[in-house]
From TrEMBL:
Cofactors named for this entry: Mg(2+)
Keywords from the UniProt entry: Amino-acid biosynthesis, Coiled coil, Hydrolase, Magnesium, Metal-binding, Serine biosynthesis
EC number, UniProt record: 3.1.3.3
InterPro entries in the record: ACT-like_dom_sf, ACT_dom, AHAS_small-like_ACT, HAD-like_SerB, HAD-like_sf, HAD_sf
UniProt protein name: phosphoserine phosphatase
Pfam families associated with the record: ACT_AHAS_ss, HAD
Residue ranges annotated for the ACT domain, each copy included: 361-430
Species: Albibacterium profundi
Amino acid sequence: MKTSYIIDFDSTFTQVEALDELAKISLKNNTNKQRYLDEIESLTTLAMEGRLSFRESLNKRLQLLHANKDHLELLIKKLKKKVSASFSRNKEFFKENADNVLIVSGGFKEFICPVVQNYHIAEENVYANTFIFDVNGNIIGFDANNPLSEEGGKVKLLQQLKLKGEIHGIGDGYSDFQLKESGMIEKFYAFTENIKRDSVSSKADHIAPNFDEFLYINQLPRAISYPKNRIICLLVGSIPKHAAHFFEKDGFKTVSVKNLEEADLKEVGMLLLEDGISLSNEMIESASRLKTIGYLGNSKRQIDRDFCRNRGIVLFDDKKNKWKNADFIPRRMANFINNGDTMMSRNFPNLNVPQKNDSHRLIHIHENVPGIMARINGILRDHDINIVAQFLMTKKGLGYVITDISRKYDKTVLKELKSVEHTIKFRVLY
């Protein structure tokens, strides 16, 4: 059965509200700029939360814009740089599902089509409003016959389209939820990567902090094997706010506690510790999902580095206790999770590898015994899997290998690689 994906544009496909951005451009030299900007932003919010009819909000915003075609060209350039990060890294999904993805928006085709065409979304799959211009190219209105200019316009449009098969909707606003409320779609995913509206999220079938989460839930092709919002990053002690913000901005689920005794380590994937905190081997052993530890100081007498290494846990610290370690350590931890880099770790072989966009990356941590690489590569050979690139380093009896393979492969190979004798940890990175 065919599945169609209805995706909103403003604050979903892109990080911003396009009309708000257009206003910043068109009103740049207007003496009443800030008053107009505040009014436009307020009108946008009222409409997105369902407290003002969409058509009324649209009419009032266009009257305040004072925009023309030249301003639109500048807007398009800006929007191309403001595509939401999780959509940007999953361009392959749009290529493979070009016929099934529909952009449905209360925005305007004049600026939406040039942005989404880079993601294999054809103009005929973009449903949005259109501007009306005067002879000088000034925006003076919109096509009032377009159902998307009306309240409940997305519902009316889908009634006209009569799509067959299952339909999933992804968006951040009340008009997106209306599709579910009307029974026009099977599931509604509240997209919160850029903005979270409680009035919308509370009614969603599922909250998607990013597009990776949506693809993961529906077992669809994706750039990241496991969404970062599902990886818990535990911060213990007096961690600088900017370090916590770094993890949050990168998409990790961040939890802060004052001391380790308060923490349940069973579900923790990343652990950042204030200088002076000790981490016992018993605690490490209880953290079955732990992949990396960051220590804001010298961990030598606080953490058993060999114990961590033998369990496939990468440790980063700063033995010189530099003031910049609250920037440096979180960045190294994230680089390991995101790309597999172990450069400047305290207990792992140093490996810094380029990111590949046309392959899947496998990470295999194992005891460095004779013949293990032959067994790993033998499994890949037996499944006719092409190795695009492979990187191997060893340290103190541990082997760390990163293998980039072609995208198409039998998923049973993952179970076989994980079950190779002497394997410590195995995961698919992307």
